[in-house]
Amino acid sequence: IAKEGTQDKDELCAICYTSGLGQEPCVQLDCKHMYHHSCVKKLINSGWNGARIVFNNLDCPVCKRGISCSTSPEITQLLAPLL
């Protein structure tokens, strides 16, 4: 994914890599990276995937900053109990 805020609708979602950003509803995180809304929800709900407890599912896949999205109350609500 390109520099902050320079993604276009033809780029693939960096979470699912299956369809372009313009093909499904998207959300822009506070770090300015954009993903499919459903992919961000799945990422948050996925938890950790091994014996070691880590919280990578709460980080932006590109810049690794903590996920926050002031424009999506649904994502904010999903994050609240995990933070």
What would you say this structure looks like, in words?
With 83 residues, the protein is an alpha+beta fold. Helix content is 19%, strand content 7%. The protein has a two-stranded antiparallel sheet. A hairpin with a 5-residue loop joins strand 1 (26-28) and strand 2 (34-36). The model has no long low-confidence stretch (mean pLDDT 87).
Described by the principal axes of the CA atoms, the overall outline is: globular
Total number of helices: 2
Order of SSEs:
EEHH
How much of the sequence is in beta strands?
5-15%
Helix content: 10-25%
| Terminal CA distance | 26 Å
pLDDT averaged over residues: 87
Provide the low-confidence segments as ranges: none
SS-based class:
alpha+beta
